[in-house]
Amino acid sequence: MNTPSPSESNPPDRTSTDRELSLEMLQEQHLNLKLSVEELYRRVNQIRGLLQTLVMGLAIAILLAIGISGWFAYRLLVQEQIMRRDTEQATATNAKILEQLEQMETQLQRQKVQLQTFREEVPDEFKTLTDTVQANQRQLQILRDRIKQIEPKQPPSNRTQ
Q: For the whole model, what pTM was predicted?
């Protein structure tokens, strides 16, 4: 505020209306300032409410993000457990198959040895047996031929006996 000079502070021609006008102006300025302060308080309260809403929105967004990430982590963990169980089952099945394969290979080796032994032993016996069968067939044929030779010489009455 400006301080009035001594000559202005007591002007001789100043009237009571001037004083009233200046009082009204001061009151009007006071009212305007009061309204400005109330407007500022209203705006501060509005901004505070918006900030509170923003903070609550951010908190909700953070909680949602945490929840969603937790859900994905849980889902990943479950899938990992399923994959681990499937892997263990596949490993167990693979071990059983390998064991069966080894057993089959062992059995096949035994059968190969048996077959080799059979091939080594049987040809001699088989040849001997074949020779014996052929000799028996020759003797049988010789006997049949003799029977055929003898049959026409015998009388027909003896044949039926």
A: 0.42
